[in-house]
Amino acid sequence: MAMIGPLLKEWRTLRGKSQLALSLDAQVSARHLSFLESGRSGASQDLVLRLAEALGLGLRDRNALLVAAGFAPQFGDRGWHSAELAEVRRAAGLILASHEPYPAIVVDSSSTVLEANAGALAMMGQPREALGQVNLMDLVFVPGPVRSAIGNWEEIAGYLLHRLREGARMRGPRSPVAAVLARVLAQPGVEGLTALRPANAGSVLVPLTFTRDGATTHWYTTLTSFGAPQDALVEEITIEQFHPM
């Protein structure tokens, strides 16, 4: 009972909710919620899940809240190459293959590139063996060939910085995405960036200008996620596809 209290209070504070607001959203008395946070009372599994829902927690953090309350995790947490995710990998592979010759990648919540088609590997300048190790944000923010190839780097970096901050806000200060954000903020030229700096205020898209081997191309991207996931990793991954402007 003592373990869930501090974790629950931390998430409530991160979400900017008062005890009364959370109690109303989770359909529990404010008194019981206060006792739960102070360790004077426990919670049923159903109440823990209602609190997690009211706090907008992802499946990974719902599992953590359940464990802190003394219950078993309710959602899967498999690795990308696990047998259980074979169907997900096949589905992602079909999307990536059908998008050739244009780039497409699969990334997790911290922007680690889990899979990529040939077009994306060429754009990143990475071998297939680097998948699972290379991070998209590092490629964009750390000085190197990819950052140098982005003609509108400040615009793209501002947009991605916004995505990272939102990810860290949703997943908490101890999450992998928060660690990536801290790494990004230490890179040169990032300090002066605003969260979003559109070159064309009237545009609904953030275009990417990319120059490689003397050829300049223009892209926009779309993000795809899987519906109704019951696994923490599957909930977190997105497929990013690059479309020619």
Descriptive key words:
single chain; 245 residues; five-stranded antiparallel beta sheet; 12 helices; 46% helix; 12% strand
Question: Summary?
Answer:
With 245 residues, this protein is α+β, with helices and mostly antiparallel strands.
Provide an overview of this structure:
The protein is α+β, with helices and mostly antiparallel strands and 245 residues long. Helices cover 46% and strands 12% of the residues. The chain is built from 12 helices and 5 strands. It has a 5-stranded antiparallel sheet with strand order 2-1-5-4-3, sandwiched between helices. The longest helix has 19 residues, at 153-171. The protein is elongated. It starts with a helix and ends with a strand.
Largest sheet: 5 strands, antiparallel
Mean pLDDT: 93
Radius of gyration over C-alpha positions, nearest whole angstrom: 21 Å
Order the strands across the largest sheet as they lie in space.
2-1-5-4-3
Order of helices and strands: HHHHHHEEHHHHHEEHE
> Could you tell me how far the N terminus lies from the C terminus, measured between alpha carbons in angstroms?
55 Å
Total helical elements? 12
